[in-house]
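Researcher: I'm preparing a figure for a lab meeting and need a structural model of a single chain. I don't have an experimental structure, so a prediction will have to do for now. The sequence is pasted below. Please return the structure as tokens so I can convert it later.
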Amino acid sequence: MGKVIYDGEDFKRMLRTDMSALQKIVESKKTGIFEVPFRDKKIKVEIVKKGDDIVVRRLRMA
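Model: Understood. Here is the structure written out token by token.
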């Protein structure tokens, strides 16, 4: 298994409890779009596989 790449600055500001919830989803090897807690709200993140690596990025609707 490759490494997990968190794309963006939002993940550095996540609370430890919120990050552990996100890591549980990543460890279950699920891909797609998920809602995860972020401070006092919920954000959508997209989990995709690129080769051996797993890329996690915040999904922003424009």
